[in-house]
Design brief:
alpha+beta; six-stranded antiparallel sheet; about 25% helix; SPRY_dom; zinc ion binding; metal-binding
């Protein structure tokens, strides 16, 4: 009988502990502090070890309502965890995370991203990752003219008076953006006229000469989509793939999931039609790159985060 009393006491303690955890869980779920939520929620979802050991009992003996209450409390906690876990994606997805990336010595650019578990589908989803890019004058081919705060670039028939620079493309009508992209997710849009290529490249892409080492998308240091009135093709490492059924658009959206090792190109609309997706293993910061046939404009997006 003393042993039974001891078990009853332990069960009552377990019920009290479960009630305490239930109260803590409800308090965590109601908090507006997302960091506090993330830090505490996982531990509360782990059920505690039972205080009562497994023993052989008299089959005629029953704890009655006490055992049923403990079991109900466990099931109640499990049910809360399962329901609330489905809400974590939405809660965490709205929490911005920032990382500082080095650029040009001591200058740094704030690059936004978010902890998220779902791939964007609608244009509004993509705009959550929008970033403000600018063309780098030091990389611009000699016939390219920058304007509108280095967000529009136009090709002229005559060479411009640019100073020599080791990062300037001297063989192809190309330009890179200033901002390094690394670690998270980024999205930008560009409008174009004339033949045009858009993609990403490592800083180490060759700038000199008219060969595959310096052509955007035609080496192992860059990925690009070539667009023209005749259609699209995807380029990487001397392999070009025609995309005859790709949707046409004068505005192209580029979605870089650096951590996911993908870069995707979309015909911009509310439904965002995929043109092509590259899968890779990125090892260094990437830079948005463009081949300019006539003109390219980096679109100002409403949800730009920096």
């Amino acid at each position: 009988m003393l042993q039974a009393d001891s078990y009853v006491e332990r069960l009552e303690q377990e019920i009290m502990e479960l009630q305490r955890r239930d109260a803590e869980l409800r308090q965590i779920l109601e908090t507006e502090d997302n960091i506090h939520f993330l830090q505490n929620f996982p531990t509360l979802c782990v059920a505690p070890e039972p205080m009562v050991p497994k023993v052989l009992m008299n089959p005629q003996f029953s704890f009655g309502d006490i055992s049923k209450t403990a079991l109900d409390m466990k099931e109640h906690l499990d049910d809360i965890c399962k329901k609330e876990l489905s809400k974590i994606t939405k809660t965490v997805g709205e929490t911005p995370v920032y990382i500082l990336l080095p650029r040009n010595g001591d200058k740094r650019v704030k690059s936004p991203s978010r902890v998220d578990f779902q791939e964007p589908k609608t244009r509004n989803d993509f705009l959550r990752y929008s970033c403000r890019l600018t063309f780098d004058p030091n990389t611009a081919y000699k016939e390219l003219v920058l304007s509108e705060g280095n967000r529009r670039i136009t090709r002229k028939k005559t060479a411009q008076f640019y100073p020599d620079h080791p990062e300037r493309f001297d063989g192809f009508s190309q330009v890179l953006c200033k901002e390094p992209l690394s670690g998270f997710r980024f999205y930008w849009e560009a409008e174009w006229s004339g033949e045009f290529s858009v993609g990403v490249a490592y800083r180490s892409i060759s700038r000199k000469g008219k060969n595959s080492h310096s052509l955007l998308g035609y080496n192992d240091r860059s990925w690009s989509l070539l667009c023209s009135d005749n259609g699209y093709s995807a380029w990487h490492n001397k392999v070009d793939r025609d995309l005859p059924s790709a949707p046409r658009a004068s505005r192209i959206g580029v979605y870089l999931d650096y951590a996911g090792n993908t870069v995707s190109f979309y015909a911009v609309s509310e439904s965002m039609e995929l043109i092509h997706k590259f899968k890779a293993e990125f090892s260094d910061p990437l830079f948005a790159g463009f081949g300019v046939g006539s003109s390219v404009w980096l679109c100002q997006l409403k949800n730009t985060s920096y």
